[in-house]
């Protein structure tokens, strides 16, 4: 049984190597799904751009957190000086109150921005990554998991990670093999080989089309989910930022209620998300 597996693997590797070399030297045809490949490349580019947004949003969170901490410390300093400087008690007092209010609004804004960051992180590193894993299976599907640690031989396969053979390459290799046999003589032996080649080709075709369909479905669902998530998150981000810099405390708090964002209250058993930054 082990010998049969290795033999089958060797034949498969030979056919795929032959197909790959044929494509490289311009003698073999390659199946190309332009629409699907364009969508895949667009997804990769979109993911890179969203990762940049995520990085910047995290930087904004860190800066806002530092600002809130500074305002909190400044407010405490003003309050202390208000008690110890009778001649400037009123001035220090209203500055302390101002910093206290700014600190409260800053914490509310941080709650909104943190929710935005969390949602974008889920979209990029879970939802998009899950779709790209399906794409990877489509592009470099392992031919036979029973081979365990066995790897493809030859310099030509060094570019293929972990001995994986692209599903598309397998499909084209067996398609080419079938086409070549179809153009040959039709004696009893040739007909038998042709039938076997037809069966193998159909098996790889079914595998290739299933993976291609899986990718197409995942891409469609991802696009729908991305639009839904980003519509909500961009509205949240805009409303929260606008309300904060307009000094509209009521609108800022209403934004968090609108999106069901709850801040940890002081004295809660678990540390607030601000403390966890």
UniProtKB/TrEMBL annotation:
Organism ancestry: Eukaryota, Metazoa, Chordata, Craniata, Vertebrata
Kinase found in the keyword field: no
UniProt GO molecular function: phospholipid binding; protein domain specific binding
Listed InterPro entries: AH/BAR_dom_sf (IPR027267), AH_dom (IPR010504), Arfaptin_fam (IPR030798)
Keywords: Coiled coil
Name listed for the protein in its UniProt record: ARFP2 protein
GO cellular component: trans-Golgi network membrane
Record keyword Nucleotidyltransferase present: no
PROSITE patterns in UniProt: AH
Coiled-coil segments: 194-225
Domain AH residue range list: 31-257
PANTHER family linked: ARFAPTIN-2, ARFAPTIN-RELATED
GO biological process: intracellular protein transport; regulation of Arp2/3 complex-mediated actin nucleation
């Amino acid at each position: 049984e082990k010998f049969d597996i290795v033999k089958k693997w060797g034949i498969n590797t030979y056919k795929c190597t032959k197909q790959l070399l044929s494509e490289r030297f311009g003698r073999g045809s390659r199946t190309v799904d332009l629409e699907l490949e364009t969508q895949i490349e667009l997804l990769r580019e979109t993911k890179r751009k969203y990762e940049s947004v995520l990085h910047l949003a995290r930087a904004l969170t860190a800066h806002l957190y530092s600002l809130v901490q500074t305002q909190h410390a400044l407010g405490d300093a003003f309050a202390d000086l208000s008690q110890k400087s009778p001649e400037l008690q009123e001035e220090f007092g209203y500055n302390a109150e101002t910093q206290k209010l700014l600190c409260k609004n800053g914490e509310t804004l941080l709650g909104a921005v943190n929710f935005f960051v969390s949602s974008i992180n889920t979209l990029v590193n879970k939802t998009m990554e899950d779709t790209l894993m399906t794409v990877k299976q489509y592009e470099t599907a392992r031919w036979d998991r029973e081979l365990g640690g066995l790897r493809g031989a030859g310099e030509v396969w060094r570019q293929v990670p972990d001995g994986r053979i692209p599903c598309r390459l397998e499909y084209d290799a067996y398609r080419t093999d079938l086409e070549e046999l179809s153009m040959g003589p039709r004696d009893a032996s040739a007909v038998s080989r042709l039938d076997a080649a037809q069966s193998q080709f159909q098996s790889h075709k079914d595998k290739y089309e299933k993976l291609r369909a899986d990718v197409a479905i995942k891409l469609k669902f991802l696009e729908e989910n991305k639009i839904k998530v980003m519509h909500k998150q961009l509205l949240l981000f805009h409303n929260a930022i606008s309300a904060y810099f307009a000094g509209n405390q009521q609108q800022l708090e209403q934004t968090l209620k609108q999106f069901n964002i709850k801040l940890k209250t002081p004295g809660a058993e678990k540390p607030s998300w601000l403390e966890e930054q």
